[in-house]
Q: What sequence folds into this?
């Protein structure tokens, strides 16, 4: 893989950035905080959609970008003579992910997860493998020689991915222990040989007893069927007795009802005869009072005529009173309409003023919003620059508190002679940021704040003018509604007055005599009791014909009832019922039922014993079946344990074989480069299976700590490159053609830097691209190509 171009939009500290990498030994130079490491974070992000820290969404978007601005990372690279381009975008407040992968200019894959999968398949490396293979920092190089043996071993095994094998091996050991515990625990619940024989014999004995009970149940069931047949025969005879008894009792009840009806009929005849005599007397009384009804009806007609005239007189008086009120309302409504028409005349003028004020208010508000947005952006920029100053001042304070022995905040190497240069460089960052950015931003903010104050005052004034316009318009609108109501009321009053006048003209022809009305009422009240008595007699006499008819029907009904009673007495005497025989048959039926219940009870007891035996047999069989199941489970766990032991053995052999290949391969690669870099002074670097490092000097083996700092640095460098190449070979990713090193120069002197740079020149033929990141500006002349940030 060769990196070609990188394009960033709103990614971390970069609002917009483009870079072409080129080939050879490439220096990426810039002061602390200039975004050097961010470039390689962007490369990692483009390929795998993640930063080193997976929780990237909180920090990925540029501080000056809004939620609407997209985060875009585009990387062009060459792989196995093919041109590729990967594009990742994050949009919206939630930073929704999207990605595309192009091959030779044509879209190959789309979708964030799909592109990541395609990259892993292409490079044959996961994100972690990519990091460990192609990137190294000064801290990591120094750790190769300074860490304790066990810690260094863990670090290198992690770089090579061997800790995964250790994890699997530990899991296998724990699983084997767990299976052994399970096998031992399961064995305690298995049945012994004697217990198995005992349970088998007991099943046979219980089966024989159950079969005897089943035979007895069959015998008792036959006896029960015989009893049931006898019971059915007796029940049929008993039902015949019951039916005859019920029939006779029914006939006796019917005869009793007929006799009661005859008695009731005689009483009704007597009552109707007396009622008929009374009605004949009242008919004579009604005839004597025939003139009262005619006189009452004549008075009633005259009285209704007087009531009608009285109502007409009351209506005339009401209409005259209403006309007086309507005249007053007519005059007032006319005056109100004239006043309101004068008050609503300024409406159009005020409406025009309101529109002018609204347009001015919108203009001021829009300008104010723009100024406030600009103010917020300046405040964000000021805060960002103040954070840079504060972070740099904290670094200065920390370095000054530790003195010349302190480590560089970027490369972790001791400052020593570079102490003053680092302090001066950091102070220069503080002064330039304060004078060139913070002070100018504050001046802009002061001017902007003054402009915002003036606009807010103008906004308040236009709001007040609008409020005055709206109040006046609201009042006129209210007056317009009052005017409409007044006109409507005026129309109603005029129309009602006309209708009342027409009605009064019609009613003028009617006259009312109050004295005559009172006289007629007095005569009417005196005659009313006599009239009501006549009506009462008439109502009673209407029943006379009905009473005569009822009497005739009652006499006829009495004759029919006497005939029916004689017939029913004959029917009762013909129905024969023997109560003693009925009682004897009932006793016989009750005895058969008791016998049947006793037989049911015996059969039920036998079936309970059979069910109990079946339960015992089932329990014994379940115990034997469970024992077989447990035996199979134990055997299965034994088989699993045997498989795990075989896998453990194979994995141990694989580890031994892998270690025997990895350590010599690292030694071989590192030795070749170290011999070249040191121009043959040191021929061999040994890496044993525990990843301890030794350098051979004149044929003798010495620990790496014996040598000078510069020799150790060069040894660490070639060892790290050897580990990267070995890891690349293990992953099958031989087409990856670049390496990247972060701050490997540290604060070393010029001679040491030249030695390291010469070492990189020596090995650059093996890689088309070698990237060296540094904050030391004075070394930029040492590179074939420089990218300065």
A:
């Amino acid at each position: 893989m060769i990196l070609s171009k990188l394009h960033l939009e709103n990614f971390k500290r970069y609002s917009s950035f483009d870079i072409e990498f080129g080939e050879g030994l490439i220096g990426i130079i810039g002061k602390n905080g200039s975004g050097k490491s961010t470039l390689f974070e962007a490369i990692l992000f483009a390929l795998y959609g993640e930063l080193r820290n997976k929780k990237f969404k909180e920090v990925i978007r540029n501080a000056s970008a809004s939620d609407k601005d997209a985060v875009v990372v585009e990387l062009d690279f060459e792989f196995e003579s093919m041109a590729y381009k990967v594009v990742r975008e994050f949009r919206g407040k939630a930073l929704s992910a999207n990605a595309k992968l192009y091959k030779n200019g044509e879209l190959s894959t789309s979708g964030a997860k799909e592109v990541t999968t395609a990259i892993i398949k292409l490079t044959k490396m996961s994100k972690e493998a990519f990091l460990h293979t192609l990137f190294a920092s000064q801290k990591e190089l120094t750790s190769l020689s300074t860490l304790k043996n066990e810690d260094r071993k863990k670090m290198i095994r992690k770089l090579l991915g061997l800790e995964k094998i250790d994890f699997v091996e530990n899991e296998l050991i724990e699983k084997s222990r767990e299976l052994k515990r399970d096998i031992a625990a399961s064995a305690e619940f298995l049945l012994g040989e004697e217990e198995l024989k005992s349970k088998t014999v007991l099943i046979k004995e219980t089966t024989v007893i159950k079969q005897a009970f089943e035979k007895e149940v069959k015998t008792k069931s036959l006896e029960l069927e015989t009893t049931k047949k006898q019971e059915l025969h007796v029940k049929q005879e008993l039902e015949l007795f019951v039916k005859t008894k019920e029939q006779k009792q029914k006939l006796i009840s019917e005869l009793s009802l007929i006799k009661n009806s005859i008695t009731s009929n005689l009483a009704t005849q007597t009552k109707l005869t007396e009622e008929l005599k009374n009605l004949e007397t009242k008919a004579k009384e009604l005839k004597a009072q025939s003139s009262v009804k005619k006189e009452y009806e004549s008075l009633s007609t005259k009285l209704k005529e007087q009531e009608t005239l009285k109502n007409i007189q009351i209506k005339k008086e009401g209409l005259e009173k209403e006309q007086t009120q309507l005249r007053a309302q007519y005059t007032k409504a006319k005056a109100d309409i004239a006043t309101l028409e004068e008050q609503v005349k300024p409406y159009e003028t005020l409406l025009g003023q309101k529109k002018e004020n609204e347009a001015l208010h919108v203009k001021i508000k829009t300008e104010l919003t723009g100024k406030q947005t600009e103010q917020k952006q300046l405040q964000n920029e000021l805060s960002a620059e103040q954070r840079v100053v504060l972070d740099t001042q904290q670094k200065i304070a920390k370095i000054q508190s530790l003195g010349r022995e302190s480590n560089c905040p970027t490369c972790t190497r001791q400052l020593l002679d570079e102490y003053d240069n680092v302090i001066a460089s950091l102070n220069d960052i503080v002064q330039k940021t304060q004078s060139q950015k913070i002070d100018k931003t504050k001046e802009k903010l002061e001017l902007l704040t003054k402009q915002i104050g003036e606009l807010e005052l103008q906004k308040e004034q236009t709001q007040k003018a609008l409020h005055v316009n709206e109040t006046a318009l609201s009042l006129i609108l209210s007056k317009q509604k009052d005017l409409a109501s007044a006109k409507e009321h005026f129309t109603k009053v005029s129309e009602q007055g006309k209708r009342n006048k027409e009605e009064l003209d019609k009613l003028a022809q009617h006259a009312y005599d109050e004295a005559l009305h009172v006289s007629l009422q007095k005569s009417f009240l005196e005659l009313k009791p006599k009239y009501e008595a006549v009506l009462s007699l008439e109502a009673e006499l209407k029943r006379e014909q009905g009473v005569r008819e009822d009497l005739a029907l009652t006499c006829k009904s009495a004759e029919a009832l006497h005939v029916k009673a004689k017939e029913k007495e004959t029917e009762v005497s013909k129905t024969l019922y023997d109560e003693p025989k009925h009682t004897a048959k009932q006793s016989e039926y009750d005895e058969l039922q008791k016998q049947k219940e006793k037989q049911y009870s015996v059969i039920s007891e036998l079936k309970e014993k059979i069910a109990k035996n079946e339960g015992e047999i089932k329990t014994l069989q379940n115990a034997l079946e469970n024992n077989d199941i447990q035996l199979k489970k134990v055997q299965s766990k034994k088989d699993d344990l045997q498989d795990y032991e075989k896998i453990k053995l194979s994995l141990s052999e694989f580890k031994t074989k892998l270690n025997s290949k990895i350590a010599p391969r690292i030694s071989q690669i590192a030795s070749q480069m170290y011999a070249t870099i040191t121009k043959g002074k040191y021929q061999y670097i040994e890496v044993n299976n525990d990843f301890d490092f030794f350098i051979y000097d004149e044929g003798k083996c010495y620990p790496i700590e014996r040598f000078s700092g510069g020799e150790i640095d060069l040894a660490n460098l070639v060892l790290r490159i050897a580990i990267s190449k070995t890891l690349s070979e293990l992953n099958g990713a031989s087409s990856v053609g670049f390496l990247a090193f972060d701050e490997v120069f540290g604060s070393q002197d010029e001679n040491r830097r030249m030695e390291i740079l010469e070492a990189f020149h020596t090995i650059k033929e093996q890689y088309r691209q070698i990237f060296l990141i540094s904050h030391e500006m004075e070394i930029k002349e040492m590179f074939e190509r420089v990218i300065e940030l």
In short: Residues 124 and 733 are 6 Å apart (CA to CA).
